[in-house]
Design goal:
1% helix; Jelly Rolls; 45% strand; 1 helix; eight-stranded antiparallel β-sheet; Tachylectin-2, Chain A; globular; mainly beta; 549 residues
């Protein structure tokens, strides 16, 4: 049988893929939102097997997210390559309130995908989803959408173009005729002088330029492909409806060494379609009825070009496939990722992430060798100084376990295992202190759209000794448990719905408008410690085991 690509190629929270080939190497950059480090990077040699190779933004001078809202931070990075140098454009979203979006766009460069990545160049704050196009004549162009906050105006105003000056490291052309920033396309109304008018649908946010068979082109919103020349864009749509089953979104194209083309796009696999998938995309469905706790994932589809030079899905229809014909490239596997992190290393693996800022003196892998030590910080609802260290859930059926040593002295001191979507939506099994019985206890707290509840009574624990904690995720439910010493695992509370840890649940609707809360990420499983009273308290974790199936 011919080799195939099994989708999604990056399961779990890996949205907004930007794909790039340099020689025989393929790279994918994905959004990380409020999770640190910024912009996750993956590497492949055959488009079938991928490995994480770290992150591009690893210093606070490149990325400052303290105080950023949930689902703010890094949106839709764009990875490109020119004259032996990698270029990465990214957006740091600082506000999502009402119609306003504070979206600051930056560029960093590196001689190697592993870095070191440069200090950032500020580009603009006009909107989000920026990219950079390197033309055959040596010029480079910044491309991005413009956001319109004015009442009565459609927020997706249009696409901006501006030449980038590499020598001066700033926007602004250096080859005559100089073209200032201008609208290349807009939703409605006349385009400015020097700009070609393209009649685009609403939500004009696709922002990629490419050259393919001598045609410049832009990938436009809602998965339409169009060229910047007189044509009827509506006649040449590449629309992705479902993903066997899933929802689909923004994407980029890449060409292999052998001239084959592939499209990288995000997708989401709803829990509700997992066991009883629809035969085709429903004509109408409510987002509130579907939940994707794995977040938005990355998939690949094969592309062919028709006689008129327009890209089409190779299998002939507009439904993306789970199994896609692989390119004619030698298979290249990577070593399997270990299930167990015993914390013997002196640095965290690329799977781990923290919230909004890098690990500081509150995290140590050397204070007690073979253990991860966390110092108590603010609550799980803080947007500033949190302590969670977590990894993505990447399968519907998964389990996380840890062993904790912790001696809390009052009820404001906590440490344990968390299933975390955002500040308003998480479930936390933690060891704390109960002054009424003068003992350690185990508590399970669920935060659902900002409202906290405890679905189980506190469990009295031995006065000393390590406590095992786990969470088992089985599709639509998750079950927390614990043990002491060599004792057997015991459940804590009832099975909880995993749907509360999804974009769709976190994004609260009222009619056609978002009432409050946004969700663009996915569920993380990890470790945390709090000291809400300000005392210096630490928790030690012996290991973390993540297994799927």
């Amino acid at each position: 049988m011919p080799a195939s690509i099994h989708n999604p190629v990056l399961p779990g929270f890996h949205p907004d893929p930007s794909i790039l080939r340099v020689g025989s190497d393929y790279f994918l950059a994905t959004s990380t939102f409020e999770w640190w480090p910024g912009v996750r990077l993956h590497h492949s040699r055959d488009l079938r097997h991928w490995r994480p190779i770290g992150h591009a933004l690893t210093r606070t001078s490149q990325l400052d997210m303290r105080g950023n809202p949930d689902s703010g931070g890094i949106w839709a990075p764009c990875l490109s390559w020119r004259d032996g140098v990698f270029h990465l454009i990214y957006t740091n979203v600082r506000s999502l309130l009402g119609m306003h979006k504070d979206t600051h766009n930056y560029l960093v460069t590196a001689p190697s995908i592993e870095g070191p990545w440069s200090e950032p160049v500020y580009l603009n704050s006009s909107g989000f989803d920026p990219s950079m196009f390197h033309d055959d004549d040596g010029r480079s162009w910044l491309v991005g959408m413009q956001w319109d906050h004015r009442p009565g105006h459609h927020p997706f105003c249009g696409i901006l173009l501006q030449e980038y000056d590499h020598e001066r490291r700033r926007p602004g052309g250096r080859h005559p005729p100089h073209l200032p920033r201008h609208l290349a396309a807009r939703d409605r109304g006349p385009a400015p002088l020097q700009a070609r008018r393209l009649v685009l649908p609403r939500h004009c946010r696709g922002r990629h330029l490419l050259r393919a068979r001598r045609h410049g082109g832009a990938l436009a919103p809602h998965h339409r492909a169009l060229r910047t020349e007189p044509a009827s864009p509506a006649a040449h749509r590449v629309r992705l409806f479902t993903f066997g089953p899933a929802t689909c979104g923004a994407r980029e194209l890449v060409e292999t060494q052998g001239g084959e083309w592939y499209l990288a796009h995000l997708c989401g696999r709803p829990l509700e379609w997992r066991d009883d998938p629809p035969a085709r995309a429903p004509e109408h469905y409510s987002l509130e009825a579907l939940h994707c706790p794995l977040g938005r994932e990355t998939a690949l589809q094969k592309i062919v070009w028709d006689a008129q030079g327009w890209p089409r899905l190779a299998h002939g229809d507009n439904t993306p496939r789970r199994e896609v014909d692989a390119p004619a490239l030698a298979e290249h596997r990577w070593p399997a990722e270990p299930e167990l992190d015993d914390f013997d290393a002196t640095t965290l693996s690329p799977h781990w992430a923290t919230l909004r800022s890098p690990p500081g003196d509150w995290l140590s892998l050397t204070a007690r060798r073979g253990w991860l030590r966390l110092r108590g910080r603010e609550s799980l609802m803080s947007q500033f100084d949190q302590s969670p260290v977590a990894r993505r859930q990447q399968a519907f059926d998964a389990e996380a376990q840890t062993l904790l040593e912790f001696a809390p002295q009052d009820f404001q001191q906590m440490a344990g295992l968390v299933a975390y979507y955002n500040t308003r939506n998480h479930a936390y099994l933690h060891v704390t202190h109960d002054e009424t019985i003068a003992a350690r206890v185990l508590r399970l707290t669920v935060n659902d759209r900002g409202t906290a509840r405890e679905p189980a009574l506190p469990v009295a624990l031995p006065a000393t000794g390590p406590i095992g904690l786990r969470v088992q995720l089985r599709g639509q439910t998750m079950q927390f448990g614990w043990h002491a010493g060599d004792g057997a695992w015991r459940d804590v509370g009832p099975a909880l719905p995993t749907a509360i840890l999804s974009d769709e649940h976190a994004t609260e609707f009222r009619g056609d408008n978002v009432a409050q809360g946004f969700g663009f990420t996915g569920n993380f499983l990890g470790l945390a410690c709090q000291s809400l009273g300000g005392a210096d308290v630490v928790a030690d974790f012996d290991h973390f085991r993540y297994r799927e199936g």
